Known about the structure:
Structural class: mainly beta
Amino acid sequence: QVHLVESGGGLVQAGGSLRLSCAASGRTFSIYAMSWFRQAPGKEREFVAAIRWTGGYTNYADSVKGRFTISRDNAKDTVFLQMNSQKPEDTAVYYCNLKSSTLVNFWGRGTPFTISS
Length: 117
């Protein structure tokens, strides 16, 4: 089993910067990739960014390219999401996802993030 804990959410002004963290514990030896998703009020959960655990390959949603950066600390089994130039439409609950080498998905409970205009 894998346990994910997100942190770093909160309230920031538009145009500001914030970094989210997600620490994994448990059976973390079989991580294939970790990702961030978000769900805005009244909307479906959507993909934000992903990073392959081996090699560090990254992928981003078009809406965040050039503004958000995903990174990882393999030694600490932690993934980060640096968010710059934030827009009000980035307001959402941000969820951490871990995909194992057997393609099983684990989710964190989410951390809320609100951008004020």
